[in-house]
Predict the 3D structure of the following.
Amino acid sequence: MSHLINFRRTHVNYKKEFESIRSNLDVTAGYSWQSFRWQGNSLTRINSGEYNNFQAYPTSYYRNDLALVSFFGRLNYGFMDKYLLTVTVRRDGTSRFSKDHRWGTFPSVALAWRLIDENFMASLRPVLSDLKLRVGYGVTGQQDLGDDFFPYLPVYVIGNNGNLEPNTTSYPNPIPESLRGQYGSDYAFINVLKPNGYNTDIKWEETHTWNVGVDFGFLNNRINGSLDFYKRKTKDLLTFTTVPAGSNLTNALNMNIGDLENTGIEFTVSTRPIVTRDLTWSSDFNIAWNQNKITKLTAGNDPEFFIAAGEGISAGTGGTIQAHKVGHPAYSYYVYQQVYDQDGNPIEGQYVDRNGDGQITEADKYLYHSRDPKVVLTWSNSVNYKNWDFGIVLRANIGNWVYNDFEASNVSKSSTASLPLSNLMANRFIFNDLGVKGAMSDYFVRNASFLRCDNITVGYTWPSLINDALRLRLYGAVQNPFVITKYNGLDPEVFSGVDKNIYPRPITVSLGVVASF
């Protein structure tokens, strides 16, 4: 397979200072075009139309194209360098959607006030070196559907049945009795044209964001940072999800399912706690809190209605463990509530009858936590002492939960009977046979909060070698040296929320030399 990318961008810019009215203007307008192509050859076997006469086509060709076109404009206006206005607008088109939904318009506006430059702030300037207030509103668009290039088109594909056995890609055709001896079979299998599911109404996902923020600086900006509050409303949320039986040509496809709301606060601070001739320490810290919830689903107003979502799990056929439901976070886990004994061990096959009807059914499932963290933290430090330098980056997620699919698939005796003892789960004797209900227990939804060290770097620099002709730095670095977590899988950082990856992230050690002549 080959992947081709073409990109073209053209823009014009106009800048002007208007000294008489103490204003400045910066206007930009432009156009961009992007083209992506995936193409290649594959082996296939196609029935020529005669009885079991399959022919090989080793160079069967496929090609998928995607085009993105954008027209954009931006205006920056400043008055007295204290009052700032930015206005932007984009008009984007994508080949993923039909001509009725192909284009989207995405504007934004932002205002800023450099409060520190006002006369009444003069007495604070020896301590307060920067203070700016900001407010903004903007709309962004989303059309990324991965490898789903033609979601709105009714596409047909030719069935491929190389094994000469009946399946969903072929159908049996009786051979006339007079010819059965010649072909040695009562039936021949004819390839069929298979229709794929499609959605003519699919369109741009839009995110409307309101934000209010303040930028600050102290002690000649040795301490500076920002505090932001934002609210985002995502409309026509794009999600790959199941559809009602018989309503389409497939059981799941990409579609716009409803609205999602995010509310959050983000705080960032950069400091230089120590600045001397021999020693400098810089430290940056960021903390962000976010809460999201589904506010609308397009299928109706039933408070119990939900849409299955997320990556499939090993239990069942096409089963999922996550769902969208109004009033709950996106990609919440839709599970049975496990019953435990007095020692805190799960009781096999026992779940809480949440609706009290005396039996355990799908109606007893409930939404339990979400894959998305409530709080994200990052802390990076760099220290320079004479010719030595040291750097470290720590990152943490708090409140993210993960469904341990690997454990759910390998924890019971029935699922591990053929595995070597060294490959069995430590708690394999808790269950005899989980079944589909057991695999969908909240027992396997685990707190995956973590503290990860992304990298550590140590270096030494010789600033002047060979009569000042050479500057040399020798360094060593470790990527992903450690993770602190209570999660029992190999890696707590699972974006999809379904842990099916049994390979941990590697610890990488490197040594390097940087020479400047």
Remarks:
- Residues 197 and 246 are 11 Å apart (CA to CA).
- Residues 405-410 form the longest helix (6 residues).
